[in-house]
Batch of 3 targets.
Target 1
Amino acid sequence: MGHRADLHQELTCPGDLVLDPFGGSGVTAIEAMMTRRRGINVDINPLAIFMVDALTVNVNQQELINAFNDIKAKYLKLEPKSEEQIKDAIKKYPQPRPIKLPEGSDVPTADLLFSDKQKAQLGLLKFLIQKQKDESIKKTLMLMFSGLLTKINLTYHPSGNRSEGRGNASVFAYYRYRIAPRPVELELMKYFEKRLRRVLEAKNDIRLEINSDTMKNLQIVKGSAINLSFIADESVDYIYTDPPYADKIPYLDLSAMWYAWLDLESK
């Protein structure tokens, strides 16, 4: 991220407009904001838009911690562990949509990327998050939930002799949905709590420059890079982007596991 910030400061001035038409996770636009520029983040992937929006939304951190502690207490009280509890939870709580997976996946639909236990526990956690009344807190908790999905699934491959939690989902290692030969059952709440710490650190890093007073300087747009008609002619001072690798990595298709849980449109 530092390299992009250096480029912004060398080639632009405070107040200038920086565009990334393949915005992804929003690094360019966020760095622009951090260096007192304005930023436009465009991406066709609804998952990317969700992530940037949830990261930059203004949230009271103590209220977020309080909400997390409340959810944790309720989750641990209701956590489905037995076979009967798991069956009941799957019927009662939100479940992943059976979105069709890309060719070459080990299973045909996204809901099959999770064991019954994982679906029951993730469903309970999502149910508790959705009960939050504050939309900013809910968005932030769902951002944490999205990070949790990287580990709590049947494609999660542990990394060699390292600790169980140091692996990754197969989409990042193999660019396809590959069921792990020996799926690992990780402790959900332990890793959800780790996501809280990371989100708090990230929001602390950006809060001085990206807050309720400056959000007017950031545009997060779901759309195609071939249609930027919403941007006024000659208004952009600097374009910095990292285009996708054509068809080599099907980013949209590989986001299906997240679409299934986050209620995002699949295309």
Target 2
Amino acid sequence: METPRVRDSDVDIWDRSEMESRIRHILERTVRLRATGPYRPKSDAQVTAMLTGFFAAKGLDEIAISDVERMSGGASKEQFAFTLHHRASAHPERLVLRMDPLEAIAQTCRGREGEIQRIMGHYMPVAPVRWFDADGDLLGQPAVILEFVRGVTQPSEGGAAGVSGMGGRLGSLIDRLAPQYIDALAKTHRFDWSRAHLRYFDAPRGGSNQAAIWQVNWWSQVWWDCLVEPVPVVTLAERWLREHAPTCDAPMLVHGDLRMGNFMFEEPSGQFTAVLDWELAHIGDFHEDIAWTMQKLFGAWGDDGRFLVSGLLTREDFIARYQAASGNRIDPVRLHYYEVLNAYKCAVMDLGQAMRASVASNNHQEVVLTWLGSAGAVFLNDIIQLIRRA
């Protein structure tokens, strides 16, 4: 395939105005507040004071916050487990605070996360949402407060290692986890969002390419807002995505980050206890979720040398089971498009937003973000290979 030449004028004339209004608000707020850094990790005492003030504003009396504990992981949100007791509670509650640093690998909305997670709790196991502060009016920074859910994201024994959901081997648990994983995907995409009265979401027009264009504009705006160093392949990908944006006849709820690392299960039963991390959820093309979970980054190779989607099923078996459970037919052309889009999004996160947050010291995990910058080369290679295959 002959590689198209990207002109400087192309970058200037691309219209990025079409996107969800709430996403536009989040991206503009990020740029506006960036200069107020650096961001300093919160101490236990600061978290206690923030939570005490928040719950007082919510009308709770005789508030006691105890056992504050920073939670590991999370290059996106700063997270703490804590115990809440107040006069009206029968017993102490173990809760989780997820709040925004100034910048992270993905700039998202706690209002959207809290809203959709509350709704989806009626259809599948999720961490119940108790409160959210979409713009940080009470807590001082946007946050969501969830009930603490027990479980693991990878087996505690048996060969799993490294970051959860990335290359882990699930062994004998596959037969129990795979049906639940497919069921969660299908339920997400079958959800009738049109009856949900979503306050923080906009829906693209069916029968148009708006679902794709909104995503391209979202991540393109992130890239140009946080540009640290120009990367020609990223610009090439943006042009290709704009020129090949497919029609989506029936927009559906898209989770945005469905992979085994975002599913908690109990041991030894393998029963799911929570589908996590709804912060990237939006209304769009279900092929985006399918392409995301099929990434090699999130999979593993079986003993026979075949690649397993999310460490669970071969690509062919995964597609067949998903189609049977959801009623959706996967279009190979649209699937390939969203494979390119997802590689583009990951490159923007790693080489753009992660690096900008690290350079500006606007995140609590600068070392992790810097490492993600080096991982961006993987997605640049994916972009090149995928566009050539197109």
Target 3
Amino acid sequence: MLKTLILSFIVITSLVGCTYQSNVNYGKQFTTEQVNQIVKNVTTTSELLEIFGEPAVKSVLSETEEKWVYTYTGGKATAQAFTMKTTSDISTHMLDLLIKNNIVINFAETNNAHNMNMSVE
């Protein structure tokens, strides 16, 4: 009886400590300082390539216009085996650029944090 109780305690204690973690790293990181180097109606596509490298997406809008998108998603997610508690801290950083005749005519930067905590009771 005592051995069973001790064994049960050890198993339960080890399960409580089982936490699984996954890291998310998708795309190429860029900074707001890099974005601040862009000047509307001045910055060229060659300069964008020097600053950021190739975009994740290039869309042709017309003979003279393109949309370029740079995006990065990063963070971590964890799950605890015994309590079934999950948490995630993920952020997405995106830069959308409208280009006409190889010159940036408009752009928008977004940076969103996605935090989620769940548990099963």
